[in-house]
Here is the input.
Amino acid sequence: PGSAVRAVAPGRVSFAGRVAGRGVVAVELDGTGDPPLRTTYEPVRATVKKGDTVEAGAPVGFLERPTGHCPTSCLHWGLLRARTYLNPLTLLPPWLLGHGPSRLLPTQDPLRPPSYAYTREGPPYGRGAYVHGREGPSYGRGPYAYARGLSPGLPAAPWPRLPP
Here is the structure.
């Protein structure tokens, strides 16, 4: 708890408040269409408010204490277009991928129309898969390997080189 949570991309804060007892921040990403892509971060004690503009890497809050299901603090990071959940790893540069386990719901690439999707009503089938440490079959190689039902981790935009 207490670690800074930073915006993954520039945008406008569309929500900062509590949902089901947890702090949540949602950011609509600039230039991502209509409806825009939206990232969500929880459990987070927000340092921003609805309507604030944020840059990539800007703090949006601080990680709250564990919420009961995680033995230590964990960040729930989501990516949605309208009500469709997408793979948030597609927003990261390759050099940030592969540094620990990530558990994701079945998703699609955010830049392509979904052939199936996980929505708030529930998954169409199956359950999530581990991306790194890959539970079940995986496809591709290196940082772009992905598990069945997950879109490959492709950056959504050009990224700078690994910082010194």
Q: What stands out?
A: The first strand starts at residue 4 and ends at 6. The two ends are 27 Å apart (CA to CA).
